[in-house]
Amino acid sequence: MPQEIYKLAIRDFANLLGTTIDDISENCKSLINKFDFRYRKLNSSERDAVILKVIKKIDSGELSFSGKERESSWETGWSENFNNFIKSDCDIAELVPKYIKKDQSIRFSGDYIMPLDANFEVNWYTIFRTWLFEKYFKGASAIYEFACGSGYNLPILAKLYPEKELHGLDWSPASKDIVNKLAEQYRLNMTGHLFNMFSPDEKLILRDNSAVLTMGGFEQLGENYKTFLSYLVGKSPLICAHMEPLVELYNHDILFDYLGMKFHKKRGYLGNFLTSLKKMESENKIKIIKIKKTTMGNLFHDGYCFVVWESNKTK
Questions:
Q1: What sign for the dihedral angle of Cα 91, 167, 269, 272?
Q2: Is 101 left (phi over 0), alpha (psi -120 to 50) or beta?
Q3: Whole-model pTM?
Q4: Cβ atoms within 10 Å of 227's Cβ, excluding its own
Q5: Tens digits of per-residue pLDDT, 43-53?
Q6: Would you give the distance in Å from CA 119 to the centre of its chain?
Q7: Taking each helix axis from N to C terminus, what angle separates 44-59 and 255-266, rounded to the nearest 10 degrees?
Q8: What per-residue confidence (pLDDT) applies to 71?
């Protein structure tokens, strides 16, 4: 018996992003209609196999632990992206981070699904970023992406806001080279910088009314995120948007969430970041604008959660 095929519609994206259909721009709607967002649900044996695969991976001892010790690993990874980018005559598709996998089940709405298009997750990521940037960065004079990695987010920002000054910051020299090559090749208003989030450079000046972005950047700080968070609050940006795995949003009494939480902790990902933000809000240092668990993730965890906040000092 043929399996039923489902498709993400604009209303589904509105639910994932915690907004309304009217709040999704025509630009985003056009992209949603352009991409193939069909998928099928897994049968019980397939779902059992996926759960077993996840558990075996968590228990394998093969998972690397986030932190300062992984600096050389990230340099190797971004160097690979940079070399492929150059060899392809600067094809931006070569900047897709290698951790975004193709042709495997992903997490969606509390269960695992199998996309029909190998680029389903990458295309979802494009919609997510476009909506996030359109929604929250309009009023910013400049945008600083910390832990910009392969530079993959910056071309979208440049397309949406060609007039804005963009900065890509990372501790990897290869990452800096990618950003500066993007600027040169496509004549974009962006600059790459070396920056270590474990030891923030107080000499870095953020322009007035600047936006700050991290997408899986805080993730790698693990429990050592407070120094950089305090650094950002002290810089009083206009707005900060973070797409990160947020461990507080998992429900430990649900198997699906429990597995995501176990993977998160096994990798040493971001600590109680939301708890710290809420504490800062109670101290009147910041105002939290939105917290959302999108219920979309890769095979192992929910990495597309996001939180947006602004500094009270900017008012």
A1: negative
A2: beta
A3: 0.96
A4: 12
A5: 999 999 999 99
A6: 16
A7: 30
A8: 87
